[in-house]
Amino acid sequence: MTYNSLELQKRIMRRVNFIYWTKRILRPVVLKSTFLFGCLSGLAAFVSVRQVLINLLSTPDTSAAVRLIIDAVTSTDAKVQMLFAFGTILALWIMRDVIRGIFSDSLSFEKQRAEV
Question: Distance between CA atoms of 59 and 110, rounded to whole angstroms?
């Protein structure tokens, strides 16, 4: 199969545009956030979020809230424990990426500003 120059250029540009938009849409934070939303949706299917919030708001101090969360996670099903663990890991991973992004952007901005 032979292609003329214009057809080849169109095919190449179509692939380049596809890769560009795929990378733009599926950035790591977006992908991780999607999985985090899936974990949270799974947790909401197994756990009464309303009751958890009511119990958390009724705790007198922070240490009691932490104890409540630990007791609730350890005394539940394995599915819920796994979803909670994955959700926590993903949330921490997303926070790390966001913080790195903020500081790397501000550092590069300061570096550019110093060069001017």
Answer: 44
Give CA torsion, residues 33, 44, 85, 97, to 10 deg. 20
Task: For residue 48, give the DSSP letter.
Answer: -
Domain boundaries, the chain: 43-76, 78-116
Long-range contacts of 44-53 (CB under 8 A, 24+ apart): 46/76, 46/77, 46/79, 46/80, 46/83, 47/76, 47/80
d(CA 31, CA 103): 21
Averaged pLDDT in 10-residue chunks for the chain of 116 residues: 80 89 76 90 90 90 90 90 93 87 62 56
Nearest one of 109, 78, 100 to 32, comparing CA atoms: 100
What's the predicted TM-score (pTM) here?
0.62
Overall size of the chain counted in residues: 116
